[in-house]
Amino acid sequence: MEQKIPYKIYLNENEIPTQWYNLRADMKNKPAPLLNPGTGEPMKAEELYGVFCEELVKQELDNDTPYIDIPGEILDFYKMYRPSPLVRAYFLEKALDTPAKIYYKFEGNNTSGSHKLNSSIAQAYYAKKQGLKGVTTETGAGQWGTALSMACSYFGLDCKVFMVKVSYEQKPFRREVMRTYGASVTPSPSDKTNIGRKILEEFPGTTGSLGCAISEAVEVATSTPGYRYVLGSVLNQVLLHQSIIGLETKTALDKYGIKPDMIIGCAGGGSNLGGLIAPFMGEKLRGEADYRIIAVEPASCPSFTRGTYAYDFCDTGKVCPLAKMYTLGSGFIPSPNHAGGLRYHGMSSILSQLYDDKYMEAVSVPQRRVFEAAELFARVEGILPAPESSHAIRVAIDEALKCKETGEDKTIVFGLTGTGYFDMVAYENYHDGTMEDYIPTDEEIQKSISTLPQIG
Amino acid sequence: MEQKIPYKIYLNENEIPTQWYNLRADMKNKPAPLLNPGTGEPMKAEELYGVFCEELVKQELDNDTPYIDIPGEILDFYKMYRPSPLVRAYFLEKALDTPAKIYYKFEGNNTSGSHKLNSSIAQAYYAKKQGLKGVTTETGAGQWGTALSMACSYFGLDCKVFMVKVSYEQKPFRREVMRTYGASVTPSPSDKTNIGRKILEEFPGTTGSLGCAISEAVEVATSTPGYRYVLGSVLNQVLLHQSIIGLETKTALDKYGIKPDMIIGCAGGGSNLGGLIAPFMGEKLRGEADYRIIAVEPASCPSFTRGTYAYDFCDTGKVCPLAKMYTLGSGFIPSPNHAGGLRYHGMSSILSQLYDDKYMEAVSVPQRRVFEAAELFARVEGILPAPESSHAIRVAIDEALKCKETGEDKTIVFGLTGTGYFDMVAYENYHDGTMEDYIPTDEEIQKSISTLPQIG
Q1: Closest approach of chain A CAs to the CA of B96, in angstroms?
Q2: How far is CA A9 from its chain centroid?
Q3: Could you give the ipTM of this predicted complex?
Q4: Is there a contact between A180 and B8 if contact means CB atoms under 8 Å apart?
Q5: Which residue of A has its CA nearest to B79?
């Protein structure tokens, strides 16, 4: 008799992985190195030590070590909110009347409301270990800033967050959660930095962007003794830390002998997707198994599906190293898109290389279809999803409906990165009918891409 | 060797209780019956059928059946978010440097953000089973309204919520969550009911109260064919449904051979406290075990500690039956107190009788000490607690600090009813120093109590 799969698969605490998995070790084509914007040469570790903690720089540049031990103090913290459940979406399957078997890994059961805590605690730990006084960062939708403030509070580090101005104003409660954890939060662009003042002078009415907030945070980190900059997505080190999502997912599936047909995740900078797929992609790279792996991005900010694979600036102020990635150009400003976490112009270098090598697919979805899926999911599965996560829900539902047509009982796994409690303005716009599907024209994208630096 | 207690004890799905426990069956002194306000006679079942669903009336009046089967459809729904974790507060113990062992039962991992879902799904189920079209209710802080809207959406019932006006205005996002689940939300007092219009005429600037919203919801339920009224606290049936909290808690503790010394819960109308303590109080009533059981209420609305035990109106409009309870008088208006869920003037009849019979203690705590505890808890345990829940945290911490002084390693269990994501205005006031500790004077309480009906 087939073993009954429970609604929620919880691993035991002693089954939480004790090592992160470094996907790069199994990639034949390694992700392209960061380049010094001045010389065009690959960045050396020493050049990065002024910006990032030393141990994190080592992780960033390590393309070879497959498994890296998770320090005990981080494992302790993980036990505060991990293991996270792998949920069998019985209610959703029933509502869709599909033969597909749907699972989601839910990372929202913690106060940051998302998976971001997996990397923030690691980055705060290494900062503390290096004897630093504090860290700076940017945040868009606010999940990363919240996660970092929680981690810094735990280790007694100062935490300075530059929050994209439009989010700062639209999400005062997110800001208040960060304050509860002792962080200082500054709307960006601000007059506290050279780059902020310059941007304010050029664009007085600007409501900010992630690229601009990054520039400000980096400037403060590099000009304040005892501080370093930390980042919640895009970087190799972040995907390393986030591999805990995929490792737990795989352990839970293996326990019940389940082999997924496809794995679906939303993709902004790639932190969730890269973490979720890590061990599965590893098997695929080593030729041990095959899976469809699908990145879902908003139609309003389609880095994979309509961007180009090239070296680009990571930030608006162009103070960061250059990264090779699928990009829409660092000047790309996504128009009204409430999925705040998916507005970045670029994409993780690791995922960009894997996508270019055809190890994964990508689709883009318009916003209203995303909220339609979000509302259905909330009603039948009882979890109000974050707009970001709802991109993955949308495509999981679409795939499950295809199964209904074909009669196939495929196994679908998707990442539910977080909850939408601080995104109710977006839900309100959806209910009121004032939400729009903004899709950039080819001309807009072409114009933005034409500003790429001439390197590589 | 002592068995290592995990950070989070999760029961398996097949360990979720399949029966609710009816505490009244073990009480020698039963809770006093509801009285007809016109005749002063105990309400008969038939008299209540116009207000409540029939099966729920039976549960309300059943003082004898100790265990009642949970219908399969409710058990299915419980699997969406239950079992809830019993957490060993290792981080809090360490922060307090106490020898006490602290556990909390966390009911906030669902979109309603609290334990209220345990009863709303039961009440919606019986309404559906009776063939009703919809239900009406009131909500203060919004947890109950959210929980009911989720339950009604699940069973396809219409849901009309009267939300205390001050909360409606301060918490637009709560309202939006209810809308996501298809409920209609009306600020109370409204011009949609006779009682609402009357109150608006008498007190044009009023920001509403729970007692007033109850009156409006009851009026609509009793005057609209196919509708009944449902309530999220105070009632015997609600405590019955909420016994699932205590039953799960006891099963989890028993698994590890843990016997608590004291059980602590916040008390507004008594839904959480009554549910959490149910099986423990049962043992105490049957003389099988002894526990300290502590109700925690806000100093601004101290029904147990400064109220009187007498028959009183349940609502401002005096349309409901009379209940015998610890009360501050139905005209009592608690002044600025952000713990919205603990503002009710009265208290569960069951708990009132148990308190009067000295089976439990009660303490009241001022608001700023509550938020001090809330912030500490958020920082070390990683969960941002609801203001209501934080009353229990405050007293759990105080008891743990007493253990530190005496060196006793007592085992403390408290109820963490929910999360505070929709209460950030209160946190903001606390951070900004604008929060006040309002404590009513003896004269104020005396004046309010003097309006009690002369019955019983």
Answers
A1: 14
A2: 23
A3: 0.95
A4: no
A5: A7
Residues comprising chain B, all counted: 456
pTM: 0.96
3-state helix, strand, coil in chain B (%, to 5): 45, 15, 40
Contact list in B for residue A79 (CB cut-off 8 A) is: 6-8
Tell me how many degrees the CA angle A238-A397-A381 measures, rounded to the nearest 5.
Answer: 80
Residue A81, SS3 per DSSP: helix
Q: A67 to chain B, minimum CA–CA distance in Å?
A: 26
End-to-end CA distance of chain A: 57
Q: Angle at Cα B46 formed by Cα B45 and Cα B52, nearest 5°?
A: 70
Cis preceding-peptide flag for B189 (omega within 30 of 0): yes
- Inter-chain residue contact A173 with B424, CB threshold 8 Å: yes
Chain A, 146 to 165: residues with Cβ < 8 Å from chain B are: 150, 153-154
Q: Tell me the three state secondary structure of residue B440.
A: coil
The rounded Cα B144 to chain-centroid distance in angstroms is 9
Predicted confidence (pLDDT) per residue in A215-239, tens digit: 999 999 999 999 999 999 999 999 9
Measured distance CA(A50)–CA(B224) in Å, rounded: 70
Measured in residues, chain A has a length of 456
DSSP label at residue B339: -
Task: Report DSSP letters for B123-177, one per residue.
Answer: HHHHHHHTT-SEEEEEESSSHHHHHHHHHHHHHT-EEEEEEEHHHHHH-HHHHHH
Indicate the SS3 state at residue A46: helix
- What mean pLDDT is predicted for residues B421-443? 91
Question: Looking up tokens 């974790």, which residue turns up?
Answer: B85
Minimum distance, in Å, between the CA of residue B428 and any CA atom of chain A: 6
User: Residue A274's pLDDT is what?
Assistant: 98
* CB interface of A with B, residues 348-387, below 8 Å: 375, 378-384
The beta-carbon neighbor of B375 closest among A180, A379, A428 is A180
What is the arithmetic mean of pLDDT over A400-425? 96
Q: Is residue A174 very low, low, confident or very high in pLDDT (cuts 50, 70, 90)?
A: very high
pLDDT in tens, A238-276: 999 999 999 999 999 999 999 999 999 999 999 999 999
| Subunit contact B382:A80, Cβ cutoff 8 A | yes
Q: CB B424 to CB A154 under 8 A? A: no
Per-residue pLDDT tens digits for B135-163: 999 998 899 999 999 999 999 999 999 99
3-class DSSP assignment, residue A74: helix
In angstroms, the CA A235 to CA A211 distance is 14
| Interchain contact, B382 vs A150, CB within 8 Å | yes
Residues of A in contact with B80 (CB under 8 A): 7, 91, 381-382
